[in-house]
Amino acid sequence: xxxxxxxxxxxxxxxxxxxxxxxxxxxxxxxxxxxxxxxxxxxxxxxxxxxxxxxxxxxxxxxxxxxxxxxxxxxxxxxxxxxxxxxxxxxxxxxxxxxxxxxxxxxxxxxxxxxxxxxxxxxxxxxxxxxxxxxxxxxxxxxxxxxxxxxxxxxxxxxxxxxxxxxxxxxxxxxxxxxxxxxxxxx
Length: 187
Known about the structure:
The protein is an alpha/beta fold and about 190 residues long. It is built from 3 helices and 6 strands, in the order H-E-E-H-E-E-E-E-H. The chain is about 30% helix and about 25% strand. A hairpin with a 5-residue loop joins strand 4 and strand 5. Keywords: Lipoprotein, Membrane, Transmembrane, Transmembrane helix.
């Protein structure tokens, strides 16, 4: 009994055709819905650009608005498929305002020296398209307010070498992350 062998090139071609047919079958059986992968699936697809004006600051710490603007733009560029732009005619506009900034004493030692403090920042934000429709909605507590209030606290201990500036910067970064997270599409 003789065994017939195929040339190596023919075997490779047959294997490639089998893999191609398997992929076509998987694509046909996977349904009609256009599934998306990655972070672009989390955000509305009809938006390409976001205008982030300099964030207004109603507190006495004059640099908070500029620092938060930089952090929000950085988060948008890193986590979303959108392009942050200076053009006020962008597809959407993200407006924010720092409404409050506080520092609270948490603990003191026996001699009344401060041991731990909290730095807190509150920001109002709204995201709308060119027609003025709100894109960011408070899904937890629906209100008639057009903005969402974000609040972030960061603890710092001066005895350990931590400062109000490092705590404030961490709070700003966390706020930017939370604001951009609210830009995700709702299921």
